[in-house]
Specification:
With 233 residues, the chain is of the alpha/beta class. Helices cover 37% and strands 26% of the residues. The chain is globular and about 45 Å long. β7, α7 and β8 form a beta-alpha-beta unit.
């Protein structure tokens, strides 16, 4: 479904992502691990069109993405749930969800809205509430729900557990697994490496913009490097 080859991304003179190559098959759950500054968020922003690569190729569902506008990438089925949620604070929950469907015909979104509100009953309870007054966990639910309104084939999830209580983390990841079982491919950037490797099938470890390790999630979890750097030894 996704093929990334020799991707290089710069911030001015800073070489943030260096000749990155990886692939993801339809339906997979893939973790992207690494310390702060390793290039994880930069990679997701480049895949979703928010940043342009200096070189390399990105192919999604048979289409080259590196020169396509972000809204057209959404139309193709790749949707980014950014770090920090980035919801519209002054809009209601329902208004935020409707913005997720802006690339689609409005007369075709009723069933998807109902699905999102079924996945996240808390959002249904608060559908007319101003989004900026929601808790952190509710805002994360809203960010994921808004992405689902675009009817994605693939979700790019950037730090979905950040700032959440353990109970809400488990709830969010249970829902993410449900979304994957419904056929959505997942690329997950997650500070909690233990839970990322628990729910994902494969993973890639980034260091200063390059992949230094890759493999099955269970093998990465057993790796001495990963255990020392990301799993607390």
């Amino acid at each position: 479904m996704l093929e990334v080859r020799n991707l290089s991304v710069f911030y001015g003179a800073i070489h943030a992502v260096k000749s990155l190559s990886f692939s993801i098959a339809s339906g997979e759950r893939i973790a992207l691990l690494g310390a702060n500054g390793a290039g994880k968020t930069t990679t997701l922003k480049t895949l979703s069109g928010l940043l342009r690569p200096r070189s390399g190729t990105i192919e999604f569902a048979g289409r080259a993405l590196q020169r396509i506008a972000p809204h057209d990438i959404v139309r193709l089925g790749m949707v980014h749930v950014p770090e920090g949620r980035k919801i519209f604070q002054r809009l209601t929950v329902l208004e935020n969800l409707h913005t997720g469907a802006y690339t689609r015909h409005t007369d075709a979104i009723g069933a998807d809205l109902e699905l999102v509100l079924t996945l996240f009953p808390r959002l249904k309870e608060r559908r007319n509430q101003i989004a900026g007054t929601l808790s952190g966990g509710e805002q994360q639910m809203l960010a994921i729900g808004r992405a689902l309104m675009a009817r994605p084939k693939m979700l790019l999830l950037d730090e979905p557990s950040m700032g959440l209580s353990p109970r809400l983390v488990n709830q969010i990841f249970d829902t993410i697994m449900t979304i994957n079982r419904q056929g959505v491919t997942l690329l997950l950037v997650e500070q909690n490496a233990a839970i990322a490797l628990e729910i994902c099938e494969r993973g890639y470890v980034l260091e200063t913009g390059s992949i230094i390790l890759e493999g099955a999630a269970k093998d990465l979890a057993a790796s001495e490097l990963v255990r020392q750097a990301y799993l607390g030894g």
